[in-house]
Amino acid sequence: IQLGEHPRNIQRKLLNFISPSSRPKEKKQE
Question: Which helix H or strand E contains 25, and what residues bound it?
Answer without folding.
Answer: helix 24-29
